[in-house]
Every structure is written in C-alpha cells, then in structure tokens.
Amino acid sequence: MGWRGILGFDYGIVQAPLGADISGPELVAAVANSGAIGLLRAPDWESPEYLRELIRKTRTLTDKPFGIGVVLAFPHEENLNVILDEKVALLQVYWGVFPKELVLQAHAAGVKVVHQVS
User: Fold this and answer.
1) Which of 22, 24, 26, 76 has the CA that lies 20 to 30 A from 61?
2) Burial class (CB within 10 angstroms; exposed 0-12, middle 13-18, buried 19+) of 64
3) Is there a contact between 67 and 89 (Cβ–Cβ < 8 Å)?
4) What is the pTM of this model?
C-alpha cells in the first residue's frame, strides 16, 4: 500500500517538528508540496488559537496533507482539541503516554497517529 495509500504522502521522508520558529507554516508547506511529510510543532503550552492560526496559514500555502508534533510532557489537551477539530492528516506524539482512547478519538476525526518511542 505504501505511504500514499496509508497517509497520503508520496515519500517516507519526515521533516521533524522542531518548533514554530523553525518548523513553521512555510517550511511545512514546502515539505508537503514536495511530497514528503511536513510537521508543525504544537506549542509547549496551551495556545489553541495560535495553533489554529498555524494550521490555517499552512493550508493557505499547500493543499497537501501535513501533520503536527505534540510533546505529551507539556500541557496539550486544548491544543489536541484544535488538531482534531482541524482534522490534520497526521499527529505525531512523543515524550509521554498517549492513551488508546485518544488514539481512537483521533482516528474518528480522520487523523492518523504516530507515537514516537525512544
């Protein structure tokens, strides 16, 4: 099936979510437009409107799927609600436990979940 069939991307290249100052909408859109996986970084604090703004700005720059990285060790519940509401293609979670119930909630919203294990 490959990346295209599972996640909607042409290449299995992942651009790391290094922070909004580095992995902002312009970079994420450029990566997505090239067929790879571009990831925004959710803020390390609850900032749902700021995150919604990042998602919507990215959508003005690409019609390709992209994702968001969330550090679970930081507050993230309100940000997660925005991610699911905006139905981004991919949610990468790391540095913490992401309960199965939230995975199911993401899947119900059409969001694929990748849990990074280190």
Assistant:
1) 76
2) buried
3) yes
4) 0.88
